Amino acid sequence: MANSSRPRVPTAAGTRGSTAGARVEGEAGPAATAGPADPADARGTDRGEERTGAHRTTDDRHRSDHETTGHHHDTDWETAHRTAHRVGRELPPRAVSLTEAIGHTLAEPLTALTDLPAFDTAAMDGWAVSGPGPWGLEPGGAVLAGHDHPAPLADGLAVPIATGARIPPGTTAVLRRERGRTLADRLRGPNPSPGADIRPRGQECRTGAGLLPAGTPVTPAVLGLAAAAGYDRLTVRPRPRVAVLVLGDELLHRGLPTGGRIRDAIGPMIGPWLTGLGAEPVSVRLLGDLPAGSADRAGGPRGDTLVEALLDAAGSADLVLTSGGTGAGPVDRVHPALRALGARLPVDGVAVRPGHPMLLAELPDGVPLVGLPGNPLAAVSAVLTLVAPVLRGLTGRPEPDADTVRARLTEPVSRHPRDVRLVPVRLPAPGWAEPVGWAGPAMLRGIAVADAVAVLPPGPAPAAGRVRLLELPRP
Ligand SMILES: Nc1nc2c(c(=O)[nH]1)N[C@H]1C(S)=C(S)[C@@H](COP(=O)(O)OP(=O)(O)OC[C@H]3O[C@@H](n4cnc5c(N)ncnc54)[C@H](O)[C@@H]3O)O[C@H]1N2
Ligand code: MOO
């Protein structure tokens, strides 16, 4: 199983250049792995990590707020991203057939195993000609694609040739079918410029050329390119397997809300979103509010505590998700269960709205866990903030450049003074982002018509102008 062979050392920090992250991981080690962790330890390291960031003043003010209110400190949104990417340690690579490789991620660069084209090729149907016309027609018949070495063409001669056929030695150009006329054994037409409609060997690449970097998702086009470049198998990191535990006694899986109970809205969306993010959802279980339980599995029948459910999920998955129960309510059992397991909490709350109670943990055998808050739009926020980068980490995909996707807001949008706001937007025209509204943490009406999510940095005045966009995963 992939879990057992995954490297446990934090190698990824170095390769991804996150030195702040590497140091925090070191600091967190002994305190956080020592056992039923004092959550304060994890929080302390989060603070340490944030002190290295750019928002010292804001963080310091934020921290003292929490000290006076007794709340712990949320990790800033960018740091949460980076931490999640690092916590998702690359799954071991495996060699698979091209058909099996779809949706996985290249674990090695794709390097051309041949020149492309592999030989000089006709780019058009017509005639291979040698020298200026008119030309005498070679008596030997046509040169077709798939034929081995054609006979050389003497000066003043032409031979019919098919697109993709190997160019006879001595050819100076290809005359397209629609430009030439044959009469008896003569070909007439305008003189093509030398090399016209010949694709020279190696035009696209030479043997050994780097075509795609490691970390590239294997799309249909990548499969085609790999086949053209000579591959029968690809070395990939597989789609991470994800087990989802949906918590909450109030949740119904069918029918209308009744008796204070509501429909589970996270279960139906999480699987397809995981698929869209390159993962393989292996299970989505509606568990109700299980008691937290203890790490001593002998203490009760299997499967009746959250601890049991987490251990079972971690045994068959590369990433575990929970939804709901991340808060401090009477039946919020995610923290107690993680504490009972001695899990590390690299992120325990993120300075983002909605979704600030989201968390990222590492279960004792190294399997990462993301706790999605129960409010459905808050859960979406956690998918974009923590789940997506963990999955990219597991598959060795790089984090996208923060500046690549930006658009201008069609109207100012209020910001949160300390936290990033994620706001569903439509993209009505290239370069423009229009807030769609209906963006309360418990609402899905806005995100359901959104094309993307705008990232509004914290600040006093409404956001206006250009903002970063996050793509919504599409299954
Ligand atoms: N005293 C405080 N209370 C709350 C805070 C806070 O800071 N202080 N934060 C609020 C925020 S923000 C969120 S988000 C939620 C997070 O709560 P939990 O992760 O513990 O989630 P639950 O309490 O289980 O549920 C919250 C809400 O969402 C509904 N829910 C849960 N699961 C689903 C689902 N699968 N489909 C649809 N709806 C779901 C649940 O019924 C609750 O209404 O805490 C706030 N409270
Ligand atoms: O952040 Mo909560 O996620 O506002 O609903």
TrEMBL record:
A single Gene Ontology CC term: cytosol
InterPro entries tied to this protein: MoaB/Mog-like_dom_sf, MoaB/Mog_dom, MoeA-like, MoeA_C_domain_IV, MoeA_C_domain_IV_sf, MoeA_linker/N, MoeA_linker/N_sf
Assigned keywords, A-Z: Magnesium, Metal-binding, Molybdenum, Molybdenum cofactor biosynthesis, Transferase
Pathway annotation from the record: Cofactor biosynthesis; molybdopterin biosynthesis
Listed EC numbers: 2.10.1.1
Composition-biased stretches (Basic and acidic residues): 40-80
Family: Belongs to the MoeA family.
Identification of the protein by name: Molybdopterin molybdenumtransferase
Organism of derivation: Streptomyces alkaliphilus
